C-alpha cells in the first residue's frame, strides 16, 4: 500500500513504470549533496518519457508494453537471464521473444491481453490446451531475492564498508545524514529501504572499481 501511494504521487504519463521508481524526487533532493544536485541536468525518469513519446499513437496499454520491451525487459530481465545462464555455462533461449511473434503480439487487441483484472488472456487460453488448468490459472508468484534481509546479515559488512560516513563525506556525492538515516531505519526494521541502499552499494562498488582504481 505504501509503494502504491508513493507511485500515485508520480506523473501519470509514466503509466505503470512509476511503480518501479523507488527514490522519489523528494528523496533524491535529500540524498545528493548540493554540489552533486547541480550536476544533475535531467529527471531520473526522462528515459521512460522518451520511450513513451517514441511509442507513437498506440493505445495506453500498447505504449506501456512498448516501454517495457525497450527498458525493463531488455535492460533488466534479459540481462540477468543472460549473465546467470552464462555463469553456469548454459545457453538460454527466449522463444516468446521471436521477432515475428512479438510483432504479432503488438497487433493483438488489448482486451485479449488485459480485461477485468485478468492478464495474459489469449496466452492462457492457448496454454490451457496443452498444460493443466490449475497450472495456467494459479496465483502468480514473484521471483526475487531477499536483499531486504541480506543487508542486515551477510551483506552488512559490504553495506558498512561502501556506505561508511567517512567515505561518503570525502567523495561529496551523497548526503551523509540522509544515507545514515536510511541505513538506521532499514536495519532497525522501521522501513524497507533495500532498493535505494542496494542501488547506492552497486554505484559505490562500480566507482571503487573503475574510477578510484584509475
List low-pLDDT spans: none
Average of pLDDT: 91
Number of strands: 2
The count of domains is 2
Q: Helix count, per DSSP?
A: 13
**Which percent band covers the strand fraction?**
under 5%
Question: Strand order across the biggest sheet?
Answer: 1-2
> Which class do the helix and strand fractions yield?
mainly alpha
Principal-axes shape call: globular
Rg is 21 Å
Main sheet attributes: strand count, strand direction, barrel closure: 2 strands, antiparallel
Helix share bin = 55-70%
The ordered string of helix (H) and strand (E) elements is HHHHHHEEHHHHHHH
Terminal Cα span: 44 Å
In short:
With 214 residues, the chain is an all-alpha fold. The chain contains 13 helices and 2 strands; from the N terminus they run ααααααββααααααα.
Structural description of this entry:
With 214 residues, the chain is mostly helical. The protein folds into two domains: 2-107, no CATH class; 147-212, no CATH class. It is built from 13 helices and two strands, in the order H-H-H-H-H-H-E-E-H-H-H-H-H-H-H. It has helices at 2-8, 25-31, 34-39, 46-54, 60-87, 99-107, 121-127, 133-136, 147-150, 156-162, 165-171, 176-187, 194-212; strands at 114-115, 118-119. The protein has a two-stranded antiparallel ribbon with strand order 1-2. Strand 1 and strand 2 form a beta hairpin. Helix 11 (165-171) runs antiparallel to helix 12 (176-187). The longest helix is centred in the middle third of the chain and has 28 residues, at 60-87.
Please tag this protein with its features:
single chain, 214 residues, mainly alpha, 2 domains, 2% strand
